[in-house]
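Many introductory courses stop at the sequence. We go one step further.
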Amino acid sequence: MPVGILINALSIVAGGLIGLFVEDRLDLDFKENLNMIFGVCAMGMGISSVMLMRNMPAVIFSVVIGTAIGLMIHLGDRIQKGAGMMQNVASKIVTNKNTSISEEEFMTTLVTVIVLFCASGTGIYGSIVSGMTGDHSILIAKSVLDLFTAMIFACMLGGVVSLIAIPQLIIFLALFFCAGLIYPMTTPEMIDDFKAAGGFIMLATAFRMMKVKMFPTADMIPAMVLVFPVSWIWSTWILPLVS
């Protein structure tokens, strides 16, 4: 039973709905400062994941080449188009009263939130672990952060934030049910390198949340797929040759 995944999805829905109700009660300074704290939390989660890295060359190669692949296939643009479609659906259900941000800033922030909720290393890894071992603690911990993050972002973006729970649920459930096939083919080194690659994406996401630098986080997603075979090749074939 994917308990952790369901809790995580419900936390986003709840946070998004709460944000709609408290939007007028929270001033802009409060929202921006709290959002910076969420960015720091995401940065801390990213750093803790990066520190688990076993094979640095393999992880760095995966992040660089994976991002290059994402840029070449315009993955970020495709996700942004999907975000626009989600916003069109959301606008028919809930009207966003916030006119203080531009359309460009709205879409940039929305893509950041989609990547944060649906493609974080913590969520993907947590879904695989949950499906393989039944340990839901990783996803439940993520749900706490997602609840408040969704609440704050809903104050800025409106009802579309709650709808992000739908693609997240689909992605995480797919990983959950495929975990039995994925996990046995991995090694502890591959898992740690996978988490490290996700950590780099979390760091990039944190910088976006704090508006320090708008990293192409959506285009970095292929790195999390590439890191599995690259880590295995490095550990099995290359490392014995250079040791």
